[in-house]
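Input record, target 12 of the design panel.
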């Protein structure tokens, strides 16, 4: 039985259980069989169900008391609801971030787990993102730094005059208009990447492999961002809204928002370039 809080060791073990169940399905035809639309808005595939069921079964077996916010099921109390509300324990999970990559065999998908005591994003105190292809883990505890496996990580110190990598995620609506608006900014970056797992990309920025992530999609979900949010901040990175303000949304399956994430050197540049535009 788990005590009052979820330790970082427990969160890692939970992620590894997902890896054990999901890794053999990566790139296989049966992984992509669809059932119904999940609470997050996307069609649920077999591989998504497997990942989420492993988590729910593990939490139930371990007799934890928490509010689970997850991609497919939405919001569900595990264990004693009254105790979970009293303790304000919340797990925000995307059991498989990058589902389309996973079923097609593209090696870029993850399980994302964030633990909060409270009801806001700033209340997240522990986070784990596990690469479902490599079994490597990014993790962080609030106030204690961010790590890749056992090594501490930090964002890069590149500025816009250097060879910066960034990911760009745009809504399909008015796509060409958005690209035209962003043309001057895109030309300033060395390379664009469109990878397909928000959680992993935030960790790439945290570890200094990339410099920025411009995600203008209004449909971007809390479950995609929650763990990477803490990992990035603990690695010295920045994440803010399109108007340049701090992001501290409610912990809810209904919460969706665009964002900009980057290293410290790019913060002022991106705020100047992006926050004055309308999308």
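The sequence produced for target 12 reads:
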């Amino acid at each position: 039985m788990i005590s009052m809080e979820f330790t970082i060791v427990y969160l890692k073990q939970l992620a590894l259980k997902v890896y054990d169940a999901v890794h053999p399905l990566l790139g296989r035809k049966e992984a992509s069989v669809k059932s119904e639309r999940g609470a997050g808005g996307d069609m649920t595939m077999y591989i998504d169900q497997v990942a989420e069921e492993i988590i729910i079964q593990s939490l139930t077996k371990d007799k934890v008391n928490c509010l689970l916010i997850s991609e497919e099921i939405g919001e569900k109390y595990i264990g004693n609801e009254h105790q979970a509300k009293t303790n304000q324990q919340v797990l925000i999970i995307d059991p498989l971030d990058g589902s389309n990559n996973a079923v097609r065999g593209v090696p870029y998908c993850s399980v994302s787990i964030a633990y909060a005591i409270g009801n806001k994003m700033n209340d997240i105190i522990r986070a784990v993102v596990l690469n479902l292809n490599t079994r490597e883990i990014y993790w962080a505890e609030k106030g204690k730094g961010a790590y890749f496996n056992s090594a501490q990580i930090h964002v890069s110190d590149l500025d816009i005059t250097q060879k910066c990598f960034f990911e760009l995620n745009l809504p399909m609506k008015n796509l060409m208009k958005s690209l035209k608006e962003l043309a001057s900014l895109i030309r300033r970056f060395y390379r664009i990447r469109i990878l397909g797992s928000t959680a992993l990309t935030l960790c790439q920025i945290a570890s200094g492999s990339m410099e920025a992530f411009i995600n203008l999609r209004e449909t971007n979900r809390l479950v995609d961002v929650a763990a990477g949010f803490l990992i990035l901040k603990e690695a010295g990175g920045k994440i803010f809204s399109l108007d340049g303000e701090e992001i501290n949304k409610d912990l809810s399956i209904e919460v969706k928002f665009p964002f900009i994430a980057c290293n410290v050197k790019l913060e002022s540049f991106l705020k100047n370039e992006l926050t004055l535009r309308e999308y």
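Residues 165-274 form a domain with the D-Maltodextrin-Binding Protein; domain 2 fold (CATH 3.40.190.80).
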